[in-house]
Amino acid sequence: MIYLDNAATTPLCEEAAKEQVFWACSNFYNPSATYIEAVKVSQALKEARERLKAIFGAKEGDIIFTSGATEANNLAVRGSCREGKAEYVFSSVEHASVNNLATQLINEGKEIKFVKTQKNGEIDYEDLQKQLNEKVRLVSCMFVNNVTGVINDIAKISKIVRQYAPKALFHVDGVQAFCKLPFKLSALDVDLFSISAHKFHGPKGVGALFVNNLAKLKPLVYGGGQEAGLRSGTENVAGIMAMVKAAESVDITKNYEKVLKLRNAFLKEINMEGLTIVKAENQSPYILTILCKGVNGETMVRMLENEVIVGRGSACSAKKAGNHVLEAMGYRQDLIKGAIRISFDASLSESDVLKAAKIIKQKYAELVEKLK
Ligand code: PMP
After folding, report:
1. What is the CA(207)–ligand 1 centre distance, in A?
2. Containing H/E element for 261?
3. Both 49 and 163 in a single domain?
4. Is the distance from CB of 214 to CB of 45 less than 8 angstroms?
């Protein structure tokens, strides 16, 4: 079985698994308790924030641990909302955890604006500028799109935001970029940045929100005041420690180069009439969408599943399969219907991806033949 749905999730790495058992079984104390063993756990959490900040390349700011990126995105967006005449600006191709929240905010009467997407899949930087003003409270734009792999120029966006919406907080959903693209948060000038552990061989149900200035956020849940009062509830210590260990175990640059080679080898092999590769100038090598003409993407996924596991646009909203993203890039509906998403991992070998490409071509040809 060749697993090519690594943007949906990845298996837990051994280092993280060991760390998780250690903190769950031997050092299980509640970090809010006052006896020495609990204080040691609390200290470990404090250090974990600094270790994570080091991987982020963040000089300042804080880390709020969450149950994943869906919660981190909700905390960033809703936690930034204020009463009154504020405006909130979103890219139009965000993950459901931002996009559906934006829709909910519209229903609640908030002033929401969506920024156009360019044909190359990146946010339309000129349109962004037009949407900004003094009233804008939040701008939210993802780093790497989870359907197309398209990379937005985050440093460029933050410059535009600072100039044209000086009162806005800038939030980035960095789920598909963190531990994959080499970057330093300190060079990007963002206020809020979400990550999810299970995308980089950490456990599911753990994530974090980088927050530049804690005072600018409001909590979504109230309780014992953990996580600087922004996310009450006993911390998932084992999950958090395993997430940080998983992040530390990744060699980002080495993996990037390996995955780039894997992707190029795959692309050479997949070349076939009827298969359109969604390519862009600025694209993560980890994610690739293929449009299979004349067939249904879901049928392709099921035909392949005994040999190659591939995804549809977005596992979290598989029924919609990220259609809005491909639509924004100008692809025709009949092609979008046949979309499958390939996502790589550095643990794969070149022979794995070449074999997978051959199987995809063969199954596609079989399906086209059947439908004749
Ligand atoms: N944002 C993006 C870009 C994602 O790809 C995902 C995961 N599909 C999420 C947010 C949600 O992450 P989580 O599974 O941790 O809630």
Report:
1. 10
2. helix 252-270
3. yes
4. no
- Tell me the best of 70, 94, 145 to mutate to test the pocket of ligand 1, counting ligand atoms within 8 Å of each CB and taking the most: 70
- The Cα 266–Cα 287 span in angstroms is 12
> Catalytic residue positions?
316
pLDDT tens digits along 138-196: 999 999 999 999 999 999 999 999 999 999 999 999 999 999 999 999 999 999 999 99
Is the pLDDT score of 315 beyond 50? no
Q: Are residues 204 and 272 in the same domain?
A: no
pTM: 0.97
Measured in Å, residue 146 CA sits from the centre of ligand 1 at: 8
Specify whether the CB–CB gap between 94 and 102 falls below 8 A. Answer: yes
CA-94 nearest atom, ligand 1 = 3
Which atom belonging to ligand 1 lies closest to the Cα atom of 144?
Answer: 3
The torsion angles phi and psi of 6, rounded to 5 degrees, stand at: -75, -10
CA–CA separation, 282 and 277 (whole Å):
14
**Domain end among 248, 267, 298:** 248
Supply the range of the domain harboring residue 327.
2-9+251-370
Residue 29 CA from chain centroid, whole number: 31
Q: Are residue 236 and residue 336 in the same domain, yes or no?
A: no
CATH assignment of the domain containing 36: 3.40.640.10
